[in-house]
Structure formats: structure tokens, C-alpha cells
Amino acid sequence: MANSDFDKFRGSVDYVTDEALRNAVNVAIALQKPLLVRGEPGTGKTMLAHSIARGVNKKLLIWNIKSTTKAQEGLYVYDTVQRLNDSRFGDKDVSDIKQYIKLGKLGQAFISEEQVVLLIDEVDKADLEFPNDLLNELDEMSFYIPETNVTIKAVHRPVVIITSNAEKELPDAFLRRCVFHYIEFPDPTLMEEIVRVHFPDIQSNLLREGLKTFYLMRGMDDLRKKPSTSELIDWLQCLAAGGISHDRVLKEVPFVGTLLKKEVDYDYFVARYMNRQRPGRKVDAYQMLH
Amino acid sequence: MFTDFYYLLRKKKVPVSITEWMTLMEALSQGLAYNLDDFYYLARATLVKSETYFDQYDVAFQEYFKGIEGPADISEKILEWLKDPINRSNLTEEERALFDKMDLDELLREFEKRLAEQTEQHDGGNYWIGRGGTSPFGHSGSHPAGIRIGGQSRGRGAIQIAQERRFRNYRSDLTLDVRQVKIALRRVRQLSRIGTEDELDLERTIDATAKNAGDIELLWTRSRKNAVKLLLLMDVGGSMEPFAELCSLLFSAAHTSSHFKDFQYYYFHNCIYENVYRDVETQEEVATDHLLRTLEPDYKVILVGDARMAITELTERYGAIYYYQRNDIPGVLWLKRIADHFTHCIWLNPEGGSFWNHPTVSMVSKMFPMYELNIDGIGDGVRKLVSKR
Question: How much is the average pLDDT of A25-53?
């Protein structure tokens, strides 16, 4: 691939990236290797695939992985029960096996006439052996269907994005074949940019106070679940929609329930922060928050 | 090209394979890196496959491309020192009081100030250590290196980024968070078929269908569920105070892991005697005998504690540190009973392995396989818990 193809991806209008991420995406595209993206929940791993698809102007196929997903389902499914059924009632020509072969997402990505972006979302949800079962298919970008004696080979190698929450360790052999990127939690400056993408018209003081509160909260080590980017965005939306003026944000932290999702965290925050902010007005804070 | 860098990475324990190295070479030959900054990201994306190794990568990168040991090493030692609870317990009363005075914002400001001074002057050693005794960092478990100084990370050279070593917190041999512990505990499972029949039994279905001359007959079986029952016993005695946060991490991970069939937890002070406690605050007692009687031997037991006590506390009658615990039977016998009753027990020790040559620690570790309370230790311990005897 020519050098000019590098730097294809520069982020898209609605997704803010940093240099490391742009680099990793472009390396993955240039080397035609899957890009494995990891990061805290809510840092926009899935959004990245959408953004890449838009950025390089290609169709996006999404393969959502669940705990029951098998690697085979991504390639093709041979609907034997349907065939058996048909054979009993004689509706169709059951000797034509092709009509019972249904391609999965990976198969669809391979036969697509144009290059597509394939997102394999939350790969670690599946069984431990799942990634290993896909090694060869992702390497060769082809697979064989014994039932019909057909080899499906990628017309254009798809851009493969794989996300993981690190719930399970991925096998080494699989990792070796990927380009890896870890999405760090954005720093305040980057975060401001990200929020602006979502709410171009947000008031500067509201945003500033909101971010200040948010990072203060993230700094509390004792929280069980720290709020993440997507929660911040929800929260700012609440603030804007509720017409909360900026000077109330840091003092009262309205709608704190959008940021803190666990009761213990909520109690901790109220006890540790709210009461210190406004001594003697504990009752008010509770009333307002509930 | 850069072959020494490859070996340096391996030396720093980053698991880089030849395949990955060839990928990097391919990328370089395609001209994907224009300068050192590009190279930093390119090499990291192709060679390093987990954020837990980013820090080692940074160290290696720094060493290779700068050829000198950066100041980061000095500051790491200092941070290590500050983090170590042992050092903290050496503080005087007065110094300890300082800890409680500062709130989070002050801590942040102070940290930034000192960090700035340190990189500018490089005379940090004395200043940091000298003041270290009163340094608030490390209080409430906050990880000093983890405090990010906002807005500076972009648009700087690769070596500076490497020097910053922001990924130190992700090293698996150093830190823990609830989620990581949960992942480690997730391996504690033994699947067995229980519950309602909700899974298609293919083999038997095919057999039955064939016998029916092709008329489909579906047969179901019970699905496999985790049968592991977990008992957690935690030391909350005085010497465990510095590790309280670490222990509560482990506790909340175990508590919120929903995959255990049963989960029970009790506390003890320094050593286990007649009673353990259901609740630290109310001191609600439960007879240890009761546990041994009511819990089947197939409960997996995790004991958490530093196992560090006076020898008499472990071996003597009436040796318990608290006078009201008039123990007729020495603690060591109680521990022995637990070890004998349950088939799978491990002991997690929040103190590093280098502190284990204390007499009581080694006695305890003879009864229970002992592991360090960090991700690697929990991982090893869990493997022991599910292994066959």
C-alpha cells in the first residue's frame, strides 16, 4: 500500500481523537490488521468504529458478541432444522444446500462488493476460546464451507475493529495478530473538545463548572464506579435542559444520579462533598437530589 | 533495525514476539513512521498488547532512545517509599495529624508543586525523602503517580511522554481495582449441571429422533452453573490498618461477583480464635466451631491478613491480644482446624513476599499456601483454589 494512504483517518466531525489513537487506526488500516481497542467503559470504544467508518467513508457492519456467541456464527450458519423440516413437507428442493447457508457478519463483510468496516464489539464477552477460533479467518480473510464446497474469500479485506472491556484475558496468539490501542481517560482539555462536539452551544461557564465537578468526582478514589465520559455527557445535557445556572453546579451538583450509579457512591459523595460544601444544609441537598 | 530495542523490551519483561516485531518492521518499511513520535505510537500499537505493559514499554523506550537513566527512576523510588504503609506507620502522632488536615484539592496542589520542583531541579531526593514523612501522598490509598496534570499531555515529544510514565498505574504487578480483582475471582468456578432443564441435549435428541423414524423429538438437559461456594475471612487487626483499603477492594469484588453459589465473609483480629465477627463495628460474634460445623468442606476459603503477630498470640493459651478474648485453645490450633476442615484454602497477604520471614508468617504459610494480595498473587491463589487436591 502506498504511503499516501497512510493518515487516512483523521477523526470525524463528531468524534474527537488524540494522536495516539489516530496513529493506531492508521497503522491498522495500512497493515491490514485488526485493531484491538481497549479502555474503561464509556470511553467511546464502540463510537470509534462508527467514526472510522464515517471518516474513511465506508459501510459499517456490527457484530455484537454475547456470552453465547460462537465464532462459527460470524462465518455462516447451516440451518439444518429448516432443511429437515422442508424435507418432511416437501416445500423446497432440499438437495440445494446453498439456500440453507446463511452468512454471518464476517461472511457478509468478506463478500461485500466494496470494502467495509467490521466492528466486533465486546469480544471478551464470549467464551475464552472465541478469539482463537477466528485466528485463521482474520489472518487469511477467507473460510471454507464444507457443506457446499465453497471457499468464501474477502473481495476487499475489511477494516476490522475489535473492542474489549478486559473482562477476560485474550489469548496471546490472537493478540499477536492485532494492533493494540488503549483509550485513556481524556484529560480536561480533550474532554472539553469532546463535549463541544456533542453540544456546540453549551455555555462556557456551565461547561467549565461541570468539568470541574466531574474531575473532582473522578479524583475520589473511594468511589466504586467512577463516572465516565458518556455519563458526563448525559449529565451536562440534564444541566442544560434543566436550565441550571453555572454557579449552582459546583455548589449543589444537581442531578448527581446521572453521574453516580451506585448507592454507596452516592451516599459517600453526599457525606464527603456536599456536606462540606454547605455545612448545616444537609436536608436541602437531599431534598433537591431526590 | 532497532534489534537491541527488541531485546531491551524483552529484558523489561514486555512479552514481544517475533511476529509482532516483523509487523513493526513491515510498518517501518512502508514508511509509516516519519519521526520519533510516530515511531513511539507505531511501535507501541504493534508490539504491546496490553496497557499493563505500557509502563515497561515507556521505561525501555526512554532508556533506548535517550541512553541515560531518566529522573523518573529516582521519583519512582520516592513514590514507592511514600506508598509503602510500613513507612507510614513509622510516623509520629504529629505527622499523622497532618494527613487528616489536607483535603483532596490541597493534596493535588501540593503534588503538582512538588512534581514541578522535582523535574526542574533534580535535587528531589533529599527534599522528597526529608519531607516524605509528612507527605500526604499515599493517604487514603490515592496513588500519587495517578494524579494527572491536566492539559499538558498533547503535542509533546515521545521521550517526554515516555518519561512521564502515565501508565505506571496499569501495571498488573502493582495495583488493584475492584474490576481487576473481579476478573481474577471469576476464575474461581466449577461448573456442574444444576437447575431446570433449559439446554438442548443434542446427542439424545438425535437418538430419540432417529428412533422415532425422523419425527423430531426434543430432549433437554440442565445447563451448567457455577457450584463454587466462597468463604472469606479477613484480618482487621491493628497492623492491618494500612491495608484497609486494599482489603475492602477485595471484599467488594467478591461481594459483587454474582457467580458464586454462596458467599460468606467474617472478620477476625490478628488471629482466629473461638469466635469470628460478622460485622466489624457491632462485633457480632459467630463461633468458629459453628462455621466448621455448618459449612461443608467444599467451601473455598480465602483468608486475608498479614499473619504478623507476637508468637504468643499464635501459639499460647490466652495469647489473644485482646484481653476479653480468653482463648482456651491457641490460635494456631484454630487455624489448623480450618485448614483441615476445608479442602481448598489460600492465604492472601497484603505485605510483600520479602516481609514473610517473620516467625508467625512462616508458621501460617506452612498451614495455608500464601500469596501476595495483588493481581498476580490473586491469580495464582485462585488457580490453587480450583485445582484438584
Answer: 86
